[in-house]
Amino acid sequence: MSEYPHILLRAEEKPLEHRSFSPAVIKTLVDAGYPISVERSSTDPKFKRIFEDSEYEAAGARLVDTGVWPNAEPGTIILGLKEIPEEDFPLKNDHITFAHCYKNQGGWEKVLGRWAQGGSVLYDLEFLHDSEGRRVSAFGFHAGFAGAALGIKTLAHQLQDSSSKLPSVETFTDGRGYYLNEDELVNPDSRGSHQG
């Protein structure tokens, strides 16, 4: 048994949001002694995580079924990036997530009330700071990378054809609406850098 609490990375349920904590982050936690479980990613392309389940296994995590987090063992910390689904059941485990509740977003009372009802704690990533007052979790390298790559694609399109809007991402991703990985985003292949 570990001296550290069990952490469960939940599968995310927000359509077309494929971000997650990376296998590298999970490996760091495993190497530090944390027991980690990762819910299997959805196979539905709208909900599929950007990282493969096998990458989490290789990082030392144990894969579990999707959707088990509400019934996790007491003391398990539930980890996720995006908001939890809007339901009514009390949250009995502590959560580390972006809850989007502290800036008067609609329904914040109901969302926060679920932790109070379950006697658990929300560690909202938006408000966790280090001893210097800096946010612990902020947009990282990949967010900047994706923004810069899309900006360059847009500029290239405008320089080549200023009379039309940049086509939607669905046009360049076989209708998916998202890139499978960073190589697909930046590799111009035969379509040209302004096309996708």
What does this 3D model show about the protein?
The protein starts with 6 loop residues before the first strand and ends in a 10-residue tail after the last helix. It folds into two domains: 121 residues, Rossmann fold; 51 residues. It contains six helices and six strands. It is of the alpha/beta class and 196 residues long. One of its GO terms (cellular component) is cytoplasm. This is Alanine dehydrogenase/pyridine nucleotide transhydrogenase N-terminal domain-containing protein. InterPro entries: AASS, AlaDH/PNT_N. It comes from Fusarium oxysporum (strain Fo5176) (Fusarium vascular wilt).
Chain-wise SSE layout:
Blueprint (H helix, E strand, L loop, with lengths): L6 E3 L13 H9 L4 E4 L13 H6 L3 E3 L12 E3 L15 E3 L10 H11 L3 E3 L16 H20 L8 H4 L9 H5 L10
Parallel strand pairs: 1-2, 1-4, 2-3, 4-5, 5-6
Pfam families: AlaDh_PNT_N (PF05222)
GO cellular component, one term: cytoplasm
Protein name: Alanine dehydrogenase/pyridine nucleotide transhydrogenase N-terminal domain-containing protein
Could you state the order of secondary-structure elements as H and E? EHEHEEEHEHHH
CATH topology of the largest domain: Rossmann fold
Helix % is 25-40%
Q: Radius of gyration over alpha carbons?
A: 19 Å
Number of DSSP-assigned strands: 6
Number of domains as seen in the coordinates: 2
Task: Quickly name the level 1 CATH class of the largest domain.
Answer: Alpha Beta
Low-confidence stretches: 190-196
> Which sequence of strands runs across the widest sheet?
3-2-1-4-5-6
- 3D shape: globular
Strand content: 5-15%
Number of helices: 6
**Proper CATH architecture of the largest domain:** 3-Layer(aba) Sandwich
Name the CATH superfamily classification of the largest domain: NAD(P)-binding Rossmann-like Domain
Q: State the end-to-end distance.
A: 49 Å
- Largest sheet, described in full? 6 strands, parallel
Helix and strand composition category: alpha/beta
pLDDT averaged residue by residue: 83
